[in-house]
Amino acid sequence: MQHWTDQLRIGAIMDGPLLAIDRLDERPVVAQIVDAMRRAILTGALQPGDRVASTRLFAAELGTARSSVVSAYEQLAGEGYLELRQGAPTLVAPLGERSGGSWSSDTPADGPSGITTRPLDTGHGTADAARRRPPAASATLVEPALVKPTLANADRGTRTAPERGTGTPQPARPPRIDLLPGRPSTARIDERAWRSAWRRAAAVAVPVDDPPRLGEPALRAAIADHVRHARGFACEPDDIVVTAGTSEATSLIGTALHDLLGTRPLVAVEDPGYPNARRMLERAGAELAPVAVGDDGLRVELLRTLPRTPDAILVTPSHQYPLGGRLPVAARLELLEYARRAGALVLEDDYDSEFRHVGAPIPTLASLDATGAKVVLIGSFSKVLTPWLRLGYAVLPRDERLRAAVEGVRAESPSPVAGVVQHAVAHLLTTGAVRRHIAATTRDYAHRRRLVLAAIGDLPGTDLVGLDGGLHAVLRLPRHDAVDAVLRHLAGAGIVVARLADYSAVTADGLPGIVLGYAGVGDRELGDALGRIRAAVLASR
Questions:
Q1: Cβ distance 474 to 501 under 8 Å?
Q2: Alpha-carbon distances of 253 from 219, 257, 266, 267, 281, rounded to whole Å
Q3: pLDDT digits (tens, 9 = 90+) for 132-190
């Protein structure tokens, strides 16, 4: 049989790099288009600001369905490579700093964009591995009720964070205004869609068995579709493991690593970073190696200074928690190259990625991983919908040993997420209710972000950061005693925020400042609290 390709120049005036479509390639045309254009952008053949052909022209020249080109462009836009604007030309997005016209890392960029479905190994680990494993942390199930904005125990809150120094002063009674981070707004939840989802879930015949260990098939398929649309990362339902939020996902992977290695894994973690993730890893038997973060996130170069090579790296590249930086593409490629050389697994906590307020999305580490075998993408619906669901997911890489270890952990304990919850969320995802909710709440959060900037963005001697995306802001202060004074003032007024130092991975070595969530309160409450924060900071000088 003749082996032939269609070739097409993909620049708007058709003088750009050649795109080759191999008709005998097992990959779909969409995947081939995505791979070729991603490679052209990463190598500098296509530059930021370059126009690319319209979907109609591209499809006509290639002789393929326009829907294939549309899907490819949407995936590339979701990964942060293209800028799609209604009624305007499609442009190559600015992705970060370059070195010498190409990305500074020598990580290959020509691997497949998606993850090939591979069956999980049916081996469940050895009895010795089970004996070595520390007890897993328990998870909380939820009841199918419509949640209003009086949420507690948020996934990213600091109610259980270790206190430092005098600790974060707390009001004697429940706070009048709760600005702890990790509380999304539920005011925009479509009650009709919400109740319909629970009715449909309740109508399912009551099973006699536990939910499937890795998750209900319908939910795994819906999450794979959500990840493709929201983050431009193509994965398969078989790659998805349903978890009880990001904390349980982190614990699950940490426990699987412990089983694989037969000893305590060393996990590099961001400092400052998410305290609960550190606790979950330690409970899973991991040893932690704090790595400092800079303005853009994890300082990748510091990984090489660790006393020994880490077995895994936990990172929040899309919106560093809590400081809010986002890792540029060049640094992401450098991190992936380090992980490849070190044989380390990367745990990508894709925190707050659905809510961007400034700048185009940047590709996930998982989508940049040319091997497809080094990154676990972790996500949650705690911010998207409500923490009461306690539902998240992990997208596993093409590492059969890791997959078998994860399945082995799940085989020893039932799924931590109730089947009725999984059915309800699957319905919310497949009907588009989640996508509509994200669009509506993003507008609300952008408005509240502007309120925060207007109220405390010009305070002398402070630095307001973390506002490019997400649901919280960080107000950095010059001294810890100033932080103490501000927290005392706010506690007296019945307002609670978090102490930035509580996020440090090193005892008594935190940054001075406060962390405030602005999503889970109304405009009037937020305005009141911001006015008091401003007054407290000025009084502390």
A1: no
A2: 20, 6, 13, 11, 9
A3: 343 333 332 233 333 333 333 344 544 444 333 334 555 557 889 999 998 999 988 99
